Amino acid sequence: MKKYITTEELYSLFINCNQKISTDTRKVEHGSIFFALKGDNFNANTFAQSAIDGGCRYAIVDDENISNGTTILLVNNVLAVLQDLAKYHRKQLKFPIIGITGSNGKTTNKELIHAVLSKKYKTYATKGNLNNHIGVPLTLLSLTTFHEMAIVEMGANHQGEIAMLSELSDPDYGVITNIGKAHLEGFGGEEGVKKGKSELYKHLKFKNGTIFINENDTVLKELSEGLSKIYYGDKPECDVFGAMVSNSEFVEFKWNTKGQSLDTQPLVKTHMFGHYNFVNVLCAVCIGNYFGVGEEAINEALEQYVPEMNRSQIKKTDSNTVILDAYNANPSSMDLAIKNFAEQPLKNKVLILGDMFELGDYSEKEHEQIIKQLLETNLDEVYLVGKEFGLFQTKVSKFQFFETGQDLKLFLNNHPIFNATILIKGSRGMKLEQVVDCL
């Protein structure tokens, strides 16, 4: 019977390999440890030798027929061992970790906080969307003694996932951006979402950690009872408070600390579209202020930050201004986006919305609610894309319906739009970014 490598033995190899890890033989990093993870359509155990041939020093597998005991090492379960390794590594780290989750705005908040903290500290933040049961371990294993602070984003679509990710990353501080109608199918409704997302609070309460919390969010305040809190909001009694001071479509605001005045404070002009992003920038201000980042540095970081990756990203085309917010969508974020866009003092507004995914039995009702909301706005030029919105095509004549983004592209090629401001929002699977080149 072949010997299983222990977590401590593997950690020694991990350090000797300069903390380099690979999980994809197409992107092997020379001298790294390859973890043969399984997916729905593949078993990476079969690629272990290819990883070694490609430059990896070791490969971790859970098939004893592949293990050779020298470079291809056997474990009981590769994913579980990757998580155990990350948890072990986390215990060696002496700097603060901020955990962040929520129904909307996780990644935006993470990026804003990272921008602010990086003005003073060597800060690492979750790359891209590595926020799940594989991504969080990879994030933790990317942390080194070079870093002074880390921000770990945690995503979930089922109860228990945030608890597991919190146990792995063991954050000292936490942020729940909000709790809304996201992943209703997996969480089992709104109460399930509330229970799942608040698992971060439960972990921090057990650890005597501290949370940063929006003082205006009654749901979060109720869930945070008994926790050490740092408040941000629009009231002077908050630890950090602020106010929007412009009718611009971008977030322009002033901020100050508890009990102080906003009158003499400088105006911070961000590249963040949508007034709903005000609470996100204020969260970053609050965290930066708590960790001693100077006022000028905080403001500079927020003014320099430019959204990317289809998240409230502004694109100027030859014909139009496009606000691309097509990375993800759920009923809560869709509601805010529509309200904000309808209120903007812009001419020639066009709205392109795609289906919202992972709503299960709630899907038809939630898409119907969005259409009812649209009918109550001043938005006339609206394009709705997807089969879920399409259920209402025969009932609503005011808007135009398309089954796919490709169908919309064909229409736009024959009916071009000029001199408009266009908001595009939909779930990732709708791939609505593909229509931008027609605008």
Tally the beta strands. Answer: 19
- Name the strands of the widest sheet in spatial order: 6-7-5-8-9-10-11-12-13
Radius of gyration: 24 Å
Regarding quaternary structure, how should these chains be classified? single chain
Molecular shape: globular
Distance between the termini: 63 Å
SSE-based structural type: alpha/beta
Any idea of the CATH class of the largest domain? Alpha Beta
Question: Any low-confidence stretches, pLDDT <50, length ≥5?
Answer: none
Question: What is the CATH homologous superfamily assignment of the largest domain?
Answer: Mur-like, catalytic domain
How does CATH name the architecture of the largest domain?
3-Layer(aba) Sandwich
Strand content: 15-25%
SS summary, helix count: 16
Give a quick precis of the structure.
The chain has helices at 7-16, 48-53, 78-92, 106-117, 135-141, 161-169, 184-187, 190-197, 199-207, 218-223, 278-290, 295-304, 331-343, 363-375, 387-390, 405-414, and strands at 21-22, 33-35, 58-61, 72-74, 97-101, 123-125, 149-153, 173-176, 210-214, 228-233, 240-244, 250-257, 268-273, 313-316, 321-325, 349-354, 381-385, 400-402, 421-425. By secondary structure, it is of the alpha/beta class.
